Amino acid sequence: MSQTTLPPVEKTQPVSAPGGSISDRSRAERKLGWMLAGPAFVVMLLVTAYPIVQAVYYSLFNYRLTDPENRSFEGLGNYWVILTDGVWWQSILVTVIITVVTVSVELVAGFALALVMAKALSSIRPVVRAAILIPYAVITVVSAFAWQFAFRIDTGFVNSWFAWLPGVSDTTDWFGGQASSLFVICLAEIWKTTPFISLLLLAGLAQVPEVLQEAAKVDGATWWQRMWRVTIPNMKAAIMVALLFRTLDAFRVFDSIFIMTAGANNTESVSFLAYRQTISRVEIGLGSAVSVLLFLAVVLIAFTFIKGFRVDLAQARGER
Amino acid sequence: MASTLAACGGGGSDSGTPTLTWYINPDSGGQATIAERCSEDSDGAYRIEVAQLPRDSPAQREQLIRRLAANDESIDLMSLDVVFPPEFAQAGFLAPVPEDVAQEVTEGVFQGAVDSATWNDELIAVPFWANTQLLWYRKSVAEAAGLDMSQPVTWDQLIEAAESQDKLLSAQGRRSESLMVWFNALLESAGGQYIEESGESPESIQFGLTTPEAKRASEVMAAVANSSAVGPGFTTASEDTSASEFESDDAGFMVNWPFVYAQAQSKVEAGTLDQSVPDDYGWALYPAVDEGTPSAPPLGGIDIAVSAFSRNVDLAYEAVTCIVQDENQAEYMVTNGNPASSIAVYDDPEVQEAYPMADTIRESLELAASRPLTAYYSEVLGCFLREFHPPGSVNDQTGERTETLTQAVLTGEQLL
């Protein structure tokens, strides 16, 4: 918001208007802004802040849903139990692997698709865009089932279609081991969310001024040089935002694992761990503590991106 | 679906009829039919509406437990998988069964089914149907292997027979409830018990996993999983996987619930399976661990429980006694394929006709052993699966590790 209002303020300064009137005006503007955004802000507080605070509160108790009478205050005991348990670190490892693999592959593939969408002939552009976006429109659980059916040893076609690949045969049990299970899970995630990244990157591509490209061409830059020195630096903000959103998403991966392996063979993610403690075991205290830790991890990622890489969300929206 | 039923069932009665809501596990419509019939028979005393729960039983439990923890009054009757009533009872979610009802609904019912619905010496739920696994075999394969199926067989014999004929021995190695079903049957057959003493508090539960019997059961489990007689996807094989393996040309032996027979028949009717396949199906009692040990087949099924938060507990119990009547159980068995918990039903001519193996099922249910009864079943199962899956890695240390883990998890010292 502040960036959009900056230019007019700068313009008015040379007129040497008294400072007080500006601050009055900006105060009125600010007040109006609060009145307009206020209701939404209150709703946000109710639906997000309240559950978060409640989870933090519950995480300090030993509290089982089926045994409310024996609820007892544990302090940080739940956190100690979690952080000293190998299961937690195993799920962190799995989550990080899935996040790093899917996000990096998606970034490259998404960029390629964005280029295709941007450069496609205008006559076929709508078709190309629709085709690329279809996976993103599929519900995650449905896509997880589809990939599971494809790779399963009894109903799947992958084993017979790809039997020519080394290591694949009729008897390959994809969901029988950790590495192969994670491979299929990552593949499903990549297939499903690459369109999201490519959509964000397409918006970024459109922001790169054509004049810069032309100037580079005149200077004799090759396609590759233009890509590296003109296009990519100019869409850095869009890339960072795409990475941020996808990393946050990928870190909370749940549906695909739930459907495909149900956490078997050490394929459990942090969200899955939280789900099992809270929903299956009805250990509200322990589960809340896992959720709070997951929340902190997500905050840390967001903070690192925004501060560490100086991602400016407003810039990505083309406001500056 | 519920509204259609309400319209049918309540057709003849006035609008003041109290409505009971029965949360059912998905089936082929049998429970809805029974609900309709009992509503009519009640002469306007009550009307039963059914509401469907999710497909798999852990998800059914999750939904019910969350609702009941919030004192949801909209639940009157619940179809509960036999492993869950103790947890619900311990939490105070179940209305006590009146003395006269308890007497009526346990008469002529398989002891195993009654035991699994009993907690702290009191009946807490009403046995509705009782499932059990049989040993299914291809007559041609057993004959070629020279295995006499009229006598009790052991797992070792099955492995040997299947390997010698290059055929499959199908069991459920998936990381799910079915692995517990299998292990518990092995353990009970060896003479052990998963839980030797179940106490009120988690600390007081005594496990029986370090006994020689448990070691023998683990040994058999690993021997099956590591034999060349199991399919390539054994660690992810479910009941459905086994059923389709058993319909294939590689089929030899299989342990599974009776639905496999009805499934093969319906495939024949649909034209996707040759009649010669189910004709080759043979059945016998669940295999024993060793020669001379008894067969201890798994016990499954559904109990009907009444919620403590129901506004019509008395009417609900009236409805339950109607639902579990022999005629209803018999029809449910014939139309939906779920074996009755009442012994007399197996003499019903229609049941005998639909199930050539009805007598074997009855015999199996008489021997059947229930899974560990505990208010912490989900935890017990979760710890078991963490150590015992994949079944091929099970050794004589696995039981001890599972015991330690379960104790730590139940006392809140470890995550699950």
UniProtKB/TrEMBL annotation, chain A:
Keywords: Cell membrane, Membrane, Transmembrane, Transmembrane helix, Transport. GO terms for biological process: transmembrane transport. The chain crosses the membrane at residues 32-53, 87-118, 130-151, 284-306. Residues 92-305 form the ABC transmembrane type-1 domain. It is a multi-pass membrane protein. The keyword Cytoplasm does not apply. The keyword Endoplasmic reticulum does not apply. CDD domains: TM_PBP2. Gene3D superfamilies: MetI-like (1.10.3720.10). It comes from the Bacteria. PROSITE patterns: ABC_TM1 (PS50928). SUPFAM superfamilies: MetI-like. Its main location: membrane. It is found in: Cell membrane. Pfam families: BPD_transp_1. Residues 1-24 are annotated as: Disordered. GO terms for cellular component: plasma membrane. InterPro entries: MetI-like, MetI-like_sf. Belongs to the binding-protein-dependent transport system permease family. This is Carbohydrate ABC transporter membrane protein 1, CUT1 family. The lineage of its organism: Bacteria, Bacillati, Actinomycetota, Actinomycetes, Geodermatophilales.
From TrEMBL, chain B:
InterPro entries: Bact_solute-bd_prot1, SBP. Coiled coil: none annotated. Pfam families: SBP_bac_1 (PF01547). Keywords: Signal, Transport. Belongs to the bacterial solute-binding protein 1 family. This is Carbohydrate ABC transporter substrate-binding protein, CUT1 family. It comes from Geodermatophilus aquaeductus.
